[in-house]
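Hi support team,

I'm opening this ticket because the web form for multi-chain structure prediction keeps timing out on my end. I have pasted the exact lines I submitted so you can reproduce it. The total is 1239 residues across three entries, so I didn't expect it to be a heavy job. Is there a limit I'm missing, or should I split the entries? Thanks in advance, R.K.
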Amino acid sequence: MPDPRAATDALFVANNTWMLVATVLVFIMHLGFACLESGMTRAKNTTNILFKNVSIVAIGVLTYAIIGFSLMYGDDVLAGVLGFRGLGIGTDAAGVTAAYADGAYTYWTDFIFQAMFAATAATIVSGAVAERVRLGPFLVFSALYVALIYPIVGFWTWGGGWLGSLGFHDFAGSTIVHSVGGWGALAGVVVLGPRLGKYVGGQSRPIMGHSLPLATIGMFLLWFGWYGFNGGSVLSGDPGKVSFVFVTTTLAAAAGVMGAMWTSWIVQKHPDLSMVLNGALAGLVGITAGADVVSPLSAIVIGGIAGVIVVFSVLGFDRVRLDDPVGATSVHLVCGVWGTLAVGLFSSDVSFLDQLIGVAGVGAFCFASAFVLFWALRATVGIRVSADEELLGLDIGEHGMEAYAGFQIFTTQ
Amino acid sequence: MPDPRAATDALFVANNTWMLVATVLVFIMHLGFACLESGMTRAKNTTNILFKNVSIVAIGVLTYAIIGFSLMYGDDVLAGVLGFRGLGIGTDAAGVTAAYADGAYTYWTDFIFQAMFAATAATIVSGAVAERVRLGPFLVFSALYVALIYPIVGFWTWGGGWLGSLGFHDFAGSTIVHSVGGWGALAGVVVLGPRLGKYVGGQSRPIMGHSLPLATIGMFLLWFGWYGFNGGSVLSGDPGKVSFVFVTTTLAAAAGVMGAMWTSWIVQKHPDLSMVLNGALAGLVGITAGADVVSPLSAIVIGGIAGVIVVFSVLGFDRVRLDDPVGATSVHLVCGVWGTLAVGLFSSDVSFLDQLIGVAGVGAFCFASAFVLFWALRATVGIRVSADEELLGLDIGEHGMEAYAGFQIFTTQ
Amino acid sequence: MPDPRAATDALFVANNTWMLVATVLVFIMHLGFACLESGMTRAKNTTNILFKNVSIVAIGVLTYAIIGFSLMYGDDVLAGVLGFRGLGIGTDAAGVTAAYADGAYTYWTDFIFQAMFAATAATIVSGAVAERVRLGPFLVFSALYVALIYPIVGFWTWGGGWLGSLGFHDFAGSTIVHSVGGWGALAGVVVLGPRLGKYVGGQSRPIMGHSLPLATIGMFLLWFGWYGFNGGSVLSGDPGKVSFVFVTTTLAAAAGVMGAMWTSWIVQKHPDLSMVLNGALAGLVGITAGADVVSPLSAIVIGGIAGVIVVFSVLGFDRVRLDDPVGATSVHLVCGVWGTLAVGLFSSDVSFLDQLIGVAGVGAFCFASAFVLFWALRATVGIRVSADEELLGLDIGEHGMEAYAGFQIFTTQ
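Hello R.K., no limit was hit. The queue was backed up. Here is the completed structure from your submission:
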């Protein structure tokens, strides 16, 4: 029998290969977010949104290497704070440590897969605060959120903390990733206030995204990457489990499209592409908590309901004047909560009460933390661009650079 | 020796992992189609095209789960109609049933890989009928075509039906997927008629696509996904077979580019990017039937000829006033037929006559079915938007939503 | 014990699957280049750039099949010239020859992975000469460069030649791929001269790219593909090695973003998105030579320095009036050199002197070859479009086809 950790152990190679492929798929979700968020906002703020999404990946990965990975999974908090774990001190070049001796993948694979996850939590916030947040303070928020808040919540559930012990089931992170991002997004929206011109004379005015092809590319890339996000959360290439997760994930996304399509067609009187894009994502967020334990039929129901919810949620947030340009709170927070609770409803092995406790505990901690962070930044350096800059667009204001040089664009929209 | 179906069976994990990766690659072809079709048509119809492509994926996957998978591979038609098979009644969570006990992948993997295939057949139609078809009736057509017509033809060849028994060789679906979509496209074009302003005073007027970058992204993503489409059709990770298919697929695509480039440079007097994009796709469609059995040199010849054919086909369809905005009939139907026949010419193990019978049988059934479907929809609810809506663009007419809000666009093109 | 080359050998399947996935990832880098280069140049030259990138993939793969693969790895030069090796004469359908009997992948996998690499070297040149080079002569240059120059240099290092014997360490090609492309780019820029209007009255005038979303999509796809480029260069699915390479690659890219962000923020007084995009690529190019042998911490340092270098390099090339529209020389040449030398600095097993010899030897050969090729083409058929065509844009001039039909675009930019 071969050494179970040697490169000649075929099962080890096969499992680890799947985890690395999953990592690559999660990576490209960052492009998905960049496209979705920039497509759904105005052309005059595009450079700024792209800049945020590129830099957040970098900040997310680096802070996770320095501190996040240790906080989330480390035995030794001091080692964590000093970044020993993320940068691999004490690990041999093949990524083998005692803790990984029997696992399906190496230490390095674990780190890089988790690092890609961590970076998504911060990215979710960026869409909600788009078109008015100052770049520098937002990057500070993101760095702190991904370096401290996400790993703490992650530790609670996946690192051996109280939520995991309780029996809270969040397979790939409807709560731990998506609602964490979503609560941050909500706090940002509340502290920042709406975009200029969004609510005028008691009326909500639609502000259309400047490129639906870009938004559609974003949605498809997110769905594409979700196969790594959910499929990789099996933490091995186990054929039955990974393929089952693929099926539930796909059916939920498809049902989310249908749910949002029919709801928007009936409520808004026409089939709304941006709602359908959010419907797919709603279905995906919704199934993420339970993709491993609910049946294919339940996946269709969960995804379909998420697609209905997201339409009403987008319209509802708008009614209460919480201005989220891309619907990030509806998709990631509301559907993240729905998906987490749904596991308690659709799986007999999971307690609804435990799910509720998880949702509430993570929500209270994340919203409070994000609110304090945004509030402190507002009170000190300021988080909102000037009204002049907002009207002119952040591309010129923050970056001195148009996104579409040479095109005739009406920035007054 | 380990249990051949356990998650600890390394060969099973490795094979299944490849099939799941192939599934992900086929999935992203839907984004490829969305980009290609919207890029090659006018800006005023972009939202509509994107909407169709997003919803067709969802419809395709769901109908395949409910009925298509059972029809195509099921033993029991009644179980099929009731969707037992697709939703996995009688299957354990690991996706193991008697039929899969010795295979290279799980039941769930089989379903999800096949479901992604099924959805492509309907998507092919959408480009050909773009810019004038009504959304609702088109979605009805797509649902019926992917739920009933595609699985029947698939059953004939891959599910144990008469074409497979005959010796008809269609490795990954030049006929079973691409020409099925292509015949549907042709029927749609015939029943719908050309776009307003396309043929004026006995002249064909060029209607340019609004974004060649979008079209190019689409072509590259389709080529990218084709490695899963053809590579996954090996139905295992068999190193020799999958890598051989990669080589023939790549060489045919490259030769298709060259064939279309030179042909268009000579015939049209300048090197035409849209022809070259279609040339790559022509090469890919052409090799799809025989990627496993023709030599690399034959792959170059088959792909190169497909690249030549596609240019003359696009010009030819235009001459006979069949208005296909994206060239879907030329790429998927004409080159699908060519590729299927080419297997009979380039492989000594395959009979040309059997290939001809397969092409004719599938063609007669699909064209007739699609024609009847489109004709019935036209006769009842109508399938074409009003002339006013066509001039204004379907984005406003059907969706109340521009694709490029804020940009100055000349919709009169 | 199973036959080590049979499709039932799980380790063989797992390793080969990873190499094929890596191949697919490297393939999509060509779309990355297409998007990056077209996004960073003007809308009036977009069709031309896309055309070049599509056709170079095809030319690269075909010439590599016919001659390059044999030149680079063949025992028999005559067989090489006649293309026996690339097209697989003498190889059985399973891709097994004596030379591959104990390897981790098949002959066909080797060919297709290497062919994708080869095509990137030529693509790098296209961005630097964009917006003024004639299409035909450029394609001739590309075909010769990828068919002859790249394989010769590749043979020196990876095929058993003098640089490999010397101890020169270039893991995945900072020098062998990126600087080869970069030297070609530099030669092209020198021979072609700057774009009209770039340097006027002793001043350098900024010429902005027309679509930063397109450029950002390009950067992300390149980063995405780099996991195949570097990860595949392990030449097996060895879990420790591939995952380690993933970590160093990711950290270097992230550090490159940070390095370029801070440098541009300080030097240019605003955070410049195009610099940050190049910063990510600079980090990736920089780590490519040593991704397998430097520590994660060193990867951060190497990538961060590359990010700083690329900003000064772009500004420096502009100061000496070498007009490279997309910064290809800075990213691929300057950072390729930096990354190669850095291995000598950060790995105790590699000699700095050997690295310097490799850089100098490859540089002298490639720059001289590329210069002669461009010079000979200029002296005979001419390589630059007319001034009228340059002002009008190459899309109309060379292709008779706008990239954005229907959009109001100011081509006078």
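A quick check on our side: Residues 5 and 101 of chain C are 7 Å apart (CA to CA). Let us know if the file doesn't open in your viewer.
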